Amino acid sequence: TGYINVSDIQTPAFIIDSKYTSATSGSTVSVDWNIVGATNVAAAQAIISWDNTKITLSLTESGDFLEGNTPPLLVTEESDNGNISTLSVYTSSLSSDKPSASGDGTLATIEFTVNANAGDIVTIDFGSETDEQTLDVDGNNIALSQTVNGYIIVE
User: What is the pTM of this model?
Assistant: First the structure.
């Protein structure tokens, strides 16, 4: 497992954490869609893609960053285009006691089954800049400064 040096990231940012995750073929691996350096974020969306011949989506669960007295809303949609799968993921606070959040935290946890061979490196990519968005409680865009992809290293 690798770690991200947060001081090297321009915030606010979306990151796949752990940036480097080791796995074996046939195993399951979880990565987090995290936000770093957020200020008053009420909702977030991203499009994440991967090579579906090497990993397949197993599960997506909401993170705790936007959780207050109610779990956050989590809406996902997976689609395939040849051997590239994409996950559109949207999360929003539904809590009256915590309509927005600041700081660092997990927006969602994504679990994959590894189908790749030993020696393969699988990239988990964020989409283009227009695919990622964060909003405040009034629906105003909060510009992201950076996205950091993740990698599954198959041993």
Answer: 0.93
Report residue 42 as tokens: 């009420």
Peptide bond into 99 cis (omega under 30): no
Quote the distance between the C-alpha of residue 25 and its chain's center: 22
Tokens of 41: 């974020």
Query: CA-CA distance, 73 to 41, in Å (whole number)?
Result: 14
> What is the average per-residue pLDDT within 58-62?
97
- Tokens, residue 27: 């195993």
pLDDT of 30 strictly over 80: yes
Tokens 């865009």 appear where? 141
Q: Which of 25, 32, 46 is nearest to 1 (CA)?
A: 32
CA distance 99 to 13: 20
